[in-house]
Input
Amino acid sequence: MRSKRRSLPRSAAAGRRNGKLVRKQPAHALDPEKLLRLAQQLYAHALTLQEVIRNEGQVAYEGLRPRYDRQAAQQFEIFYRTPKRPARFRKHGVRSYE
Output
């Protein structure tokens, strides 16, 4: 007795690019760049609120926020950089003309 073959619904269409299986992003998917910026803003907000609470409300939120925006930007900088390999890690025969 054979069982019926079931087809599972696909959440995203798949295709091939350069020999690799690639899935298309669903229309409702979040852009990674937007998500990263939102995380940075939330982090700056949390740092600012933490400082306001630590000072028992004697310091204004608006006065502290620019400082913590800069701090969050510095800490999130690593996520925005494009990875570049140092010369010693490059393959032999490959040169960079930057």
The beta strands are 14-17, 20-23. Helices lie at 32-54, 61-80. Residues 87 and 93 are 11 Å apart (CA to CA). The first helix runs from residue 32 to 54.
